[in-house]
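Slide 14.
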Amino acid sequence: MTSKEQPTEPPGSGQRPVLIAAAKEYTHRQDLLDCLICREDVGCVLSSQGYSIYNLDIFPADLADPKHLVQRINEYQPLCIFNLFEGFGSEPWLEASFCEILEKNNLTFTGNPSGALRLCIDKHTLHQQLKTAGIPVPLSYFLKGKETLGTLENISFPLFIKPCREDGSVGIDKKSLVFNEEELQESVTEKLAKFPDGILIQEFLSGPEYCVSFVGNGPFSPVGLWTLDYSRYPECPAYLSYDAKWNENSPEWNLWPEEIDLDYSLKETILHMASRAALVAGCKGYFRVDLRENQGHLFVMDINPNPALTRDSGMARQYMQKGKTYEQLVMKILQLAILNYKKRDDHENN
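Slide 15: predicted structure.
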């Protein structure tokens, strides 16, 4: 029986189930629908391992009425909430608000704590904290609302423009990479209109991209390190747009990071820098750190605290390349959540 086929009523047997949380909204966006596909895959694994599972649909009204949401959760007396909620299409930052509610009510959930989620969705603040910690990040400028674009000092074309508070490459398109002042002004005007919470104007990093997935509550264990060398795809833009990730009919769909033999020193530097960045962000459970090279130097671009967990996702494929199974990955994430809760509970009781 899959999670989709599970009844919606609370269990009556006394067995503590696992609730699988995901956003419920009307949408055609593939990045949002992917969470529901993920819930199916995770639910199948948990069912096969003998767990009773129930869907926890999160609606916008739930976050406006936390008391009712917690009452609904407590009816199940769950062992854990497998958290696949990534906010809503127009408000992705609400993923942190949901976890804050769970934390305040001492509920066990998988993945990252609210602080890490809130920091990682705000790329400007994340970069500031990483920079303060001595971790290289791209030189960037932050614009919000109706602010006008002034003189950009110490930065030269080409430049890269992206939303500050989105994930899944939302807002990254053909106008994200600009080569002159006219293109810059046009892109900034268009993107500020769509994303008034802010955009980042960054120096463009032209070298290979590195994607490092981790599991663990600290210390972190690397799941895999993949490289995306854009020079091998001259017909595509040298960055991952929304179409590259979510539009199967796009020529950019063929862009995909892969495992490549790297120099030992480079590999160790990447893993060390990614792990340090995750510590600064306060990550736990599972996550991905994206880095990119420019003129021989490495920079942390982003931390994804909610990487996709479908059976065919990048993180799952990295995990399975090491001779393990998707089922082991899902169970590892569940076990880390339970261990983290016990550790926190023990600390509070001592």
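Speaker note: Residues 118 and 350 are 28 Å apart (CA to CA).
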